[in-house]
Amino acid sequence: MEPILDVEGLSISFRQYDRGAHQRTLPVIHDLSLSIAPGQVVAVVGSSGSGKSLLAHALLDILPANSAREGVIRYRGEPLTPARTAALRGTEIVLVPQGVTYLDPLMKVGPQICKGRREGRVREACRAVLARYGLPPDTEERYPFELSGGMARRVLISTAVMESPRLVIADEPTPGLDARAAGRILGHFRELADGGAGVLLITHDLELALTIADRVAVLYAGETVEEAAAADFTTPGGLRHPYTRALWAALPQNGFRPIPGSQPAPGEIPTGCRFAPRCPRCRGDCQETHPAYRSFRGGMVRCDFPGEVME
Ligand SMILES: Nc1ncnc2c1ncn2[C@@H]1O[C@H](COP(=O)(O)OP(=O)(O)OP(=O)(O)O)[C@@H](O)[C@H]1O
Ligand code: NI
């Protein structure tokens, strides 16, 4: 089946001015490839600063002006040009943004969800979507400052899903929500996918991702290091990359063993494997050679020594 979304070799960098007129380029996403078929929920999992929101913004063509982008993004087989993205954004392709600041503070919630349209059908759909997320009917009449954080999140999601999108890009959609509200939202994403949409779920929370995702792509310091089926996460032996295994071992049900160290910042990327400084399997070459992203055992991995189980 033709993918809904197909990203090939996406790289993003920022132009920055050091001192005076001296310009430097800060690479933040490198060579990212990913595809989503109709009916699929694909999760992108990575820690803070790994490039998740930038990926979402690149897909919606809302990156900041001082950024540069390489690679190809195709939507239903055709490249997503700026004009095409602008035409599809908000209707066929929707973003659930990470921050509630995306709500217009000067506009009541109802008109924001309805995007200014007043037809009875639209108002009806708005009321239905609010009810679905457990928001009282008078939410329509409120301004964003009159909402709690959790309500504002649910309003953002309502705004996104109003139009029966074909591609949903959800950037950390559930922080601050209780388990029931989060479950309801994820359940709705799953339903949209079961109805034929593609869903890209962006989160730092692997456990949450595994509740609905079909596949998981793991992002580390701006690069995908593994793409695995959700079922591969049943045992660490099913996984390919040492970082993915470390994420697995850090889950509460697997002993909550976090790995020491932290992800390198964009200006401090090592030459070889980006995970080498923290990798329990690191050997000589890993520090020098940057590993390619390749197929391995039915998934993808960026490691020259994949699939070795840690004792
Ligand atoms: N406008 C910008 N100029 C320069 N660097 C930026 C800019 N926006 C983001 N970055 C850098 O790009 C990297 C990735 O940022 P991004 O917001 O995508 O992270 P994230 O994975 O979404 O993190 P979080 O989980 O905290 O939301 C970070 O190191 C960040 O500092
Ligand atoms: Ni983010």
Automatic annotation (TrEMBL):
One of its GO terms (molecular function) is ATP binding. It is a peripheral membrane protein. InterPro entries: AAA+_ATPase, ABC_Ni/Peptide_Import, ABC_transporter-like_ATP-bd, ABC_transporter-like_CS, Oligopep_ABC_C, P-loop_NTPase. Keywords: ATP-binding, Cell membrane, Ion transport, Membrane, Nickel, Nickel transport, Nucleotide-binding, Translocase, Transport. Coiled coil: none annotated. It is found in: Cell membrane. Belongs to the ABC transporter superfamily. The complex is composed of two ATP-binding proteins (NikD and NikE), two transmembrane proteins (NikB and NikC) and a solute-binding protein (NikA). This is Nickel import system ATP-binding protein NikD. It comes from Pseudoflavonifractor gallinarum. The lineage of its organism: Bacteria, Bacillati, Bacillota, Clostridia, Eubacteriales.
